[in-house]
Specification:
The protein contains six helices and 15 strands. It is of the alpha/beta class. It folds into two domains: 1-84 and 134-187 and 276-325, Rossmann fold (3-Layer(aba) Sandwich), CATH 3.40.50; 86-130 and 189-274, D-Amino Acid Oxidase, subunit A, domain 2 (D-Amino Acid Oxidase, Chain A, domain 2). The mean pLDDT is 94. The chain binds flavin-adenine dinucleotide. Flavin-adenine dinucleotide is lined by residues 11-17, 34-37, 42-44, 46-50, 52, 157-158, 174-180, 182, 193, 195, 229-230, 271, 273-274, 295, 297-303.
């Protein structure tokens, strides 16, 4: 006799919760998602969202998870336009006196930027092609795929692991920065990110200029708008856009890519990245309930999402050996 696949209750409908729910449903699990916010209201909806490992540890986990996610997003870009993922060429800028980012060298086909490709003030750069997701479209697509595979939805706050523990089920906490009292983790902290949105102009290439003297800067063109950033303020938790920061972002990014000044400013958005010294992905017995903790993905949630979902599936299989199943 084969053991039936355990039921899976995912708490959270950001990119981590939705991707995990979809991977689990694909693997034949009976899946329910409980979320206080709709996908479009989550931090995930604010993400820029370029494939680029950033503000998350440990590298030993991030690198294989990011590589697995790259392959899946690249395939979606190729085969499934309705998912809202595109492969785009862009440039990671280096500045005199700062160590270059390591990840561009890992992207197949990367090359040194020509002098003529560098923005003013840059000492060198790497050109490469990576996936970018238009998050409102991508999150909607993930949700639709889940629904098609029978995933059930409950839009509410989960208050207690005991109350959510369906008999024989594994709980996945994909709760991002805050679990709203469900299972507090003192190691979590916000890394505030503010972006400005520009529409009605065409900028094809993305630019990441992390060591810009004016602050970490990026320009991420998506299907219908361009996301200009940004900030990474550890410990700051205000969700209100700061007008001074908005001015700085617009000036710096227009300097990097003058074509932006022909566009229309559509507004600013703020999100709190779920910071943690290390990403948490572990299966724990919480008073007799098998619980997989999956949060703290910092500035890399989109970048590692499919790797995390696949690693979570392995933990779900381990949990099926749990005495309560
Ligand atoms: C400005 C900005 C730019 C970014 N750019 C990028 C980028 O380019 N590339 C990249 O990879 N990443 C980027 N990120 C980071 C990325 O957004 C995060 O890592 C990712 O969104 C985390 O996803 P998550 O699903 O863990 O959390 P969230 O999206 O925050 O989702 C958490 C979910 O848990 C639910 N929840 C919590 N507690 C409960 C409860 N008790 N009951 C029910 N539901 C609950 C919430 O309602 C929500 O649905 C960026 C972030 C910001 C702010």
């Amino acid at each position: 006799m084969t053991t039936p696949a355990p039921k899976v209750v995912v708490i959270g409908a950001g990119v981590i919760g939705l991707t995990t729910a979809l991977a689990a449903a694909h693997a034949g699990h009976d899946v329910k998602v409980i979320s206080a916010q709709r996908p479009e209201e989550t931090v995930s909806a604010v993400a820029a969202a370029i494939w680029a490992p950033y503000h998350a540890e440990p590298a030993a986990w991030i690198n294989p998870w990011a590589a697995a996610t790259f392959d899946i997003l690249a395939r979606l870009a190729d085969t499934t336009p309705e998912a809202g993922v595109q492969m785009r060429e862009g440039i990671v800028v280096n500045r005199e006196g700062s160590a270059p980012l390591a990840w561009p060298e890992t992207v197949a086909g990367n090359r040194p930027a020509l002098l003529s490709e560098l923005p003013r003030g840059a000492s060198s750069g790497t050109v490469c092609t990576v996936p970018i997701a238009t998050m409102p479209t991508y999150l909607k697509w993930l949700q639709k795929e889940c629904t098609a595979l029978g995933v059930a939805w409950e839009w509410r706050t989960a208050r207690s692991l005991v109350l959510e523990a369906d008999p024989g089920a594994v709980i996945v906490l994909a709760t991002g920065l805050q679990s709203l009292g469900l299972h507090p983790d003192d190691g979590m902290y916000p890394v505030r990110g503010q972006v400005a949105i520009i529409g009605n102009t065409k900028v094809d290439r993305w630019i990441i200029d992390d060591a810009n003297p004016a602050g970490p800067s990026y320009i991420i063109p998506r299907t219908d708008e361009i996301i200009c950033g940004g900030t990474a303020e550890t410990g700051a938790a205000s969700l209100a856009p700061d007008p001074e920061t908005q001015k700085r972002i617009l000036e710096t990014t227009m300097d990097l890519s003058p074509g932006l000044s022909k566009g229309t400013f559509l507004g600013s958005r703020v999100g709190l990245r779920p910071g943690r010294h290390l990403i948490r992905l572990e299966l724990r017995d919480e008073n007799g309930i098998p619980v997989i903790h999956s949060y703290g993905h910092g500035g890399s949630g989109v970048t590692v999402s499919w790797g995390v979902a696949n690693a979570t599936l392995e933990l779900i299989n381990t949990a099926s050996q749990h005495p309560s199943n």
